[in-house]
């Protein structure tokens, strides 16, 4: 085979391979960005892509980050009456994770979150107040370390549409808030380790049949 023919054969083979990938790969999700166009109904937390992140000041030198996973819960949503929406989310306390396995064990211990005694952290909404296009304040009760306190979370609508992988109609939000851990009885090393805890919840919900 001549060099020219070989190059052409190689190019054709490459093009065929790219075409095969293009036809086999799922297409991008067609997202709805307008909250009013979201499908009304009952949604369930999609745990594989929902994460509760937290950040605390570490002795003034740095910010330390961690997260909770394996969330469960639900969302009732009606874009025609967004103020009537309701939300409940629960995460296992023992799912707490940082980049340090020793610290992970400490956080689960009785000195900190006491996962054995208080196996879950939960939030249940009581009021939704629209604050702008695709944004709302969600007031509710947070239960952490056996203590329940009112908190307000700030929710931003990301988008909604059919997930091209599992074909489930999905809606997503970015949620943020701040608490003082001492309010919930988690006082270890305050104020050496920050009392203020910043939270970011990346939340995905899948629409349920019926």
TrEMBL record:
It comes from the Bacteria. Keywords: Signal. The keyword Transport does not apply. The keyword Signal applies. InterPro entries: Lipid/polyisoprenoid-bd_YceI, TAT_signal, TTHA0802/YceI-like_sf. Residues 42-206 form the Lipid/polyisoprenoid-binding YceI-like domain. Residues 1-29 form the signal peptide. This is Polyisoprenoid-binding protein. It comes from Phenylobacterium soli.
């Amino acid at each position: 085979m001549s060099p020219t023919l070989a190059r052409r054969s190689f190019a054709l083979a490459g093009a065929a391979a790219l075409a095969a990938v293009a036809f086999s790969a799922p297409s991008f999700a067609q997202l709805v960005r307008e909250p009013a166009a979201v499908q009304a109904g009952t949604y369930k937390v999609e745990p594989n892509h929902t994460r509760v992140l937290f950040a605390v000041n570490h002795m003034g030198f740095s910010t330390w980050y961690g997260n909770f996973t394996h969330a469960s819960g639900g969302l009732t949503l009606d874009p025609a009456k967004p103020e009537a929406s309701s939300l409940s989310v629960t995460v296992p306390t023992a799912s707490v994770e940082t980049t340090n396995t020793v610290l992970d064990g400490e956080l689960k211990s009785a000195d900190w979150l006491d996962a054995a005694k208080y196996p879950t952290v939960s939030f249940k909404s009581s009021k939704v107040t629209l604050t702008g296009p695709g944004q709302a304040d969600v007031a509710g009760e947070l239960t952490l370390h056996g203590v329940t306190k009112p908190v307000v979370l700030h929710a931003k609508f990301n988008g909604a549409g059919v997930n091209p992988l599992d074909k489930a109609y999905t809606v997503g939000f970015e949620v943020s808030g701040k608490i003082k851990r001492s309010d919930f009885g988690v006082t270890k090393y305050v104020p050496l380790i920050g009392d203020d805890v910043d939270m970011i919840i990346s939340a995905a919900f899948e629409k349920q049949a019926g």
